[in-house]
Amino acid sequence: xxxxxxVPHFAPEKGGAETHVLGLARYLVGKGHExxxxxxxRTLAGDALPANSTLDGIxxxxxxxxxxxxxxxxxxxxRIERADLVHLHGYGFITNDWVAGKIRASTPMVYSLHHGVAxxxxxxxxxxxxxxxxxxxxxxxxxxxxxxxLASELDRRWLEARGFPPDRIxxxxxxxxxxxxxxxxxxxxRERFHVDRYVxxxxxxxxxxxxxxxxxxxxxxxxxxxxxxxxxxxDAGERLALERLAGELHLRNRVVFAGEVDEATKxxxxxxxxxxVLPSFYEAQGIAxxxxxxxxxxxxxxxxxxxPDLVNNSQDGLLYxxxxxxxxxxxxxxxxxxxxxxxxxxxxxxxxARLSFTWDRIAQRFEELYSSVVRR
Length: 376
Known about the structure:
The chain has helices at 16-30, 94-102, 124-144, 153-161, 186-193, 211-220, 239-248, 263-272, 287-294, 307-310, 325-337, 339-356, 359-375, and strands at 2-6, 34-40, 52-55, 58-63, 67-68, 74-75, 85-89, 109-112, 147-150, 169-171, 198-202, 228-232, 255-259, 276-278, 299-302, 317-320. It is an alpha/beta fold. The chain has an 8-stranded mixed β-sheet with strand order 3-4-2-1-7-8-9-10, with helices on both faces. Strands 13-12-11-14-15-16 form a 6-stranded parallel β-sheet, sandwiched between helices. A two-stranded antiparallel sheet has the order 5-6. Helix 2 packs parallel to helix 3. 46% of the residues are buried.
């Protein structure tokens, strides 16, 4: 098949959707399919990338944005030719709405929502945008496609409540590359970042990820635990505020900002951590959880979005209500004060990741979905 993928950004950019499309495309190329990725020529930092390139056999076509008002509020005009199937990525990406309106009715489409549709709007402005976008564009595009792919059952319930046919809805998570399971080196992480015992936050430093909750919880542990916090991920506007807060909480010397790191360094940091902490306002899936499990580490996460579908509380991680800093503090105390318990949860997570989150297993299900959609 000739499969066209449409995504806001792509490698070398890093993120949930970017990781997902790269892993899926590599698998499909390996199975003999022709894969073309259509994406922005502008990086998130504003740099320009080549209009045409290839990566591991994947054809990449990049376009200058016609409109660029944010990650999803970006309009590209992809040239999609001779497609057997078009796969759109990211609900709210206005390019997807444009593409769906241009594609011939005979060309099947699959739409992966990634961050989902059930997410509550975090601000009044976001609520206004959703109230406008959903009925005028979003749901219309979803009704044009032959298959909708979700990361959580919460999104399934949202769509079914709005009359979408259950047989067009599929829950398929993002997978992990085989390299994610290669054992990281805690010793290398401790030496490089000058830490001993520490917890890891993995993700963008953005207010919707609520990294400040982690600092407040660690401060609340007091002298019971004097380890460090390592923030791994790009700054999305919160680093200065976190640095100020760390100073106010007397944690300045216990906080490390690792920034964006390569995959080997990420594995090292996860392998040596007491746990991964994911205090987000919302996560459709939370691929960072599976990445921590792949290194045998437990997780502490807010009970939002698709996270409760993923984490078996007290078995492979601990959940707490979003925004409940005392609840997060209690969960952290359980992890850092009972290392055998933490190790058992990490082992259970590793077992789950190997059974359910390898790309070979998940990408095969996508390939089967594509075949079923093309045959309709």
